[in-house]
Amino acid sequence: MNARLYIWQRATAALMVPLIGVHLITILYAVGDGLTGAEILARTQGSVVWALFYGMFVAAASVHSGIGVWTISGEWFGLAGPARDVAAIGFAFLLAGLGCRAVFAVVL
Amino acid sequence: MKKILQVSIWRGGADGVYQVFEVPAQASQTVLDVVTWVQRHADATLAYRFSCRVGMCGSCAMMVNGIPRWTCRSHVAKVSKGGTLKLAPLANLPVIKDLTVDMSRFFEKWKRAEARFYPSASRKDDVMSVSPGTSGRIDADAAIECINCGVCYAACDTVKWDSDYLGPAALNRAWTLVNDERDAAGAKRLQAVANRGGCYTCHSHQSCQIHCPKALNPTRSIAGLKRAALAVR
Q1: B91 and B200 within one domain
Q2: 8 Å CB contact between B171 and B198
Q3: Cβ of B230 and A3 within 8 Å?
Q4: Residue B108 and residue B15 share a domain
């Protein structure tokens, strides 16, 4: 790993920590308060704030995981060169796609 | 009746096998004593490396029951398992024969890390006064006692997974030089340790710290390099 990847991985981890905290607290609050799925969706649909919140999380998780896959694929599975990059970038895009689909489902 | 140790010793090169020897146990016996007994009394062709026998030279390191150790400073009574010992050459380095490894890759990485002193003054200059109390000198002193034994290199998971990784010893030495106010390498060394296979490859597993016979903390040194090298990326 070089300095650039190191910074991206640490920065995205640092960004995800508060996002995960807010997510968990919100979920616990919502469930504890007895909100139904429909009631939660009524609050998230059309919300720019929640779209940005979860969109940011998806972006950070995709970059963070992609770099992690780059490391693991080389160290554990012996991938090198373009194959290693393709595996990492492919996983990042896969995660980004799945994440965006989930975000769209709750905000659109 | 005299107690007998069951000692399995790696014989041959990379495709070798373990050979079992029965060695008389003695009081205050070190693992190096055991290996020496085998060579002198059981099989004179056994290859191993040692020099000082007192923990100064760092040449007798081997895997003892799966853990890298200085054999001269490892008492059998403390490291054997029920009177058995399993001795192998240091991990993560190519085996030459039996318990000897080829250290050239290890030292090549010291060169790649620019882990050598670049003087900032000539012989015509006065001797530089170095205060022991500066933060740089304190950091350098905390890591300076490495004797290049290779124990941390053998203990490191990341070295095992990534043959390109410079390893804890070379990076630890680089950190002492980064903090040496007499050294002139500056950004050149930081660039060398920031490259692929450098300090950012470390996962901070801390096996180097756990097994270092000098109780040094290369993980801390590498963490220092990670911060310092960001300035030159």
Answers
A1: no
A2: yes
A3: yes
A4: no
| pLDDT tens-digit series, residues B31-66 | 999 999 999 999 999 999 999 999 999 999 999 999
The CATH architecture assigned to A3-107 reads Up-down Bundle (1.20)
Which among B101, B132, B161 is the end of a domain?
B101
ipTM above 0.85, yes or no: no
Structure tokens at B23: 């060695």
Ranges of beta strands (E only) in A13-80 are none
- Please tell me whether residues B38 and B50 are part of one structural domain: yes
Of A4, A6, A74, which is closest to B226 when you measure between CB atoms?
A6
Q: Sign (positive/negative) of CA torsion B223, B227, B229, B233? A: positive
Q: Can you give the residue range of the structural domain that contains B69?
A: 4-101
Which of A4, A6, A8 is the best mutation test for B, with the most CBs of B within 10 A? A6
Partner A contacted by B227 (CB < 8 A):
no
Q: If contacts are CB pairs under 8 Å, which of residues 70-89 in chain A contact chain B?
A: 74-76
Q: What is the DSSP letter of B72?
A: G
Instruction: Locate the chain A residue with the closest alpha carbon to B232.
Output: A3
**B-chain residues within 8 Å CB-CB of A7?**
230, 233
DSSP state of B68: E
Q: CA-CA distance, B154 to B63, in Å (whole number)?
A: 8
